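lol ok so funny story. i was supposed to be doing the assay writeup but got distracted and ended up predicting the structure for this chain instead. priorities right. anyway since i did it might as well share w the group, maybe its usefull for someone
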Amino acid sequence: MLHPLPLTRLSPPTFWRCEPNWSWVSPKLADHLLWCVLDGRGHMELDGAHQDLSPGACAVFQPGDAPRATHDPRRRLLVFGMHFETSQYGVVPEPRWGEVMDRELLNVLARTSDSAYRRGDALGRRQAELCLEQLIGLIWDAVHNLTRPNTDAQVDEVARQLRQDPGRDWTVGEMAHKAALSRAQFTRRFTKQFGMSPAQYLIQARIDRAHQLLTESGMTVTQTATALGYTDVPYFSRQYKQRTGRSPSQEH
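and the output, tada:
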């Protein structure tokens, strides 16, 4: 179990696009090192263990580790990292690396850590430390949470867009196009990941948003139905009650 890190030193967070002829043969590290791939392709080795590198591949190294890495000069690695020292035991996962599935969060934390630290004030340093803790937590989850389902990144991105804008006039064809899949492939992979068809998932996303609008925004049932793409208010009301057990009018 991870606890807040008692940090004694934190180096400036850094981004670097590895040079075409780059390779890394590290001497034994004197401190801990967070190392995250944001773009590109490569390969890493540590103590006889090998890891392909692609966006989302992240590692936490400990003092004494001596990693080695190379990359494809046509797909140069973009790496975010920082050195740190801590007295916290067990901060380093085993194996050292894992694949962080939420690339968006990974990039946000990396950018926030960098910009906050470079402000040069106490709050900025604390923000950078919190980002470091969150990044280490993501890597621990990637390494140890073996029960989590494998996510289909293309399908997951479309589902995220559905949740963000459920009132849009979505079609399965458009969803499949966004995932760069055929309709049949997309529907099969979507249903496997979420346990329901894309159409049913969209309905649920609309009902979830309708509940929020009805209980928090002061919008009427008609206004809510219209906002979420329903032209038939009674039909919206039936769908809402079927999925929530309550009529929309009862939410006011």
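The mean pLDDT is 91. The longest strand covers residues 78-86.
back to the writeup now i swear
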